[in-house]
Amino acid sequence: MRLAFDEQIFAAQQYGGISRLFAELSKQFLREGSLEVELLPLDAPVVNRYLLDDPYLRDRLEVSDAGSTMAALARYFVRMRPRTSVDVIHNTFYLPHGLAGYPKARRVATVHDMIPELLPKSRRRLDFITLKKRYVMSADHVICVSEATRNDMLRVYGDIKAPISVVHHGVDPIFRPGDPRVPGLPDRYLLFVGNRGQYKDANVLLNAFATLRAKGEDAALVFTGGGAFTRAERAQHQELGVADRVMQVSLKDTAMSGAYGNALICVFPSRFEGFGLPALEAMACGTPALLALGSSLPEVGGDAAKYFTPGDAKDLTAAIEGLLSDEQERNHMKNAGISRAQGFTWGAAAAKTAGIYQSLVG
């Protein structure tokens, strides 16, 4: 069966959950002949580091470094619409150009979350020109990355004629317990991974952390990803009295396992997630995961994680205090998290996705 991905998300995103998904599916389809999927090369300039930094994917998908997102997207938009004969086209994003081309191919669309629709203030520039609903309504099959996302999609779009399947993300084997401590990180720290703004609720964690500091807790708070602190954030840290115990670091994926695995707790306070990959990565590394009780996070964490009321700094403070004072419970969560994460693999995600393709052409 001949499959085409387009380069949309790889032209737009250096790192991120959507491009990670399609990069991991690409690995599986290219390496696992038993899936009976022939993935065509992209033959395109991109900015995505998951492809460019992996020699195997870079060569097999025939991608080159575009140098900038603007250059990569410009090349995508002026490119002739493909007339290649394939069985299935699985678009990687929702830009208008992707709705044309690949005549007679069956179409698959993946919905990662409904955050732009449900939280309009969170929209980024590309969200204003995307045609997600048109992709969904014209698809022969729709994939959602969680049951929560499926329910949100149906709530926003109403009746959808195409079959809908839920295919969870996997976790890369590089995320594992026992990796050495990352140089420069404190001996005792709480970890936050990802962007800090809006619904990610980093402020809720900061307020909880300030309360803990006032009570004498000496652990540090480490943010990774999301870019350096802004001037406003640094002023907030001073105002809360935590500036000397808060730090931000940017780490490559190869160092993230050590960052997760040596944290006391990984706190993921986001009020809204389509899936929540950092929660899964933390558990795979044996780190207790403390998650906001909402959207897809309970679907990921199950009984292996602990939860608090979204947006409630007082509840989060109590949850952190409880875990920091109970080493036995943290050890229990370590083992439970590792076991839970083993149920989420990219191999399983690729096999289920390949089964969807086969159902369309079989």
* H/E topology pattern: EHHEEHHEHEEHHEHEEHEHEHEHEHEHHH
By secondary-structure content and strand pairing, the structural class works out as: alpha/beta
DSSP strand content: 5-15%
What kind of sheet is the major sheet?
A: 6 strands, parallel
Number of domain modules: 2
CATH architectural category of the largest domain: 3-Layer(aba) Sandwich
User: CATH topology of the largest domain, anyone?
Assistant: Rossmann fold
Poorly predicted regions? none
Distance between the termini: 9 Å
Shape: globular
Counted beta strands = 14
Radius of gyration: 21 Å
* CATH class annotation of the largest domain: Alpha Beta
Please give the order of strands in the largest beta sheet: 2-1-5-6-7-8
The overall average pLDDT, rounded, is 96
Write a brief caption for the model.
The chain is of the alpha/beta class and about 350 residues long. The protein has 16 helices and 14 strands.
How would you explain this protein's 3D organization?
This protein is 41% helix and 15% strand. With 362 residues, the chain is of the alpha/beta class. The chain has two domains: 2-170 and 345-361, Rossmann fold (3-Layer(aba) Sandwich); 189-341, Glycogen Phosphorylase B (Rossmann fold), CATH 3.40.50.2000. Strands 2-1-5-6-7-8 form a six-stranded parallel beta sheet, sandwiched between helices. A six-stranded parallel beta sheet has the order 11-10-9-12-13-14. Strand 9, helix 9 (202-214) and strand 10 (220-224) form a beta-alpha-beta unit. Helix 2 (17-31) packs across helix 16 (346-361). It is globular, with a radius of gyration of 21 Å. The chain starts with a strand and ends with a helix. The model has no long low-confidence stretch (mean pLDDT 96).
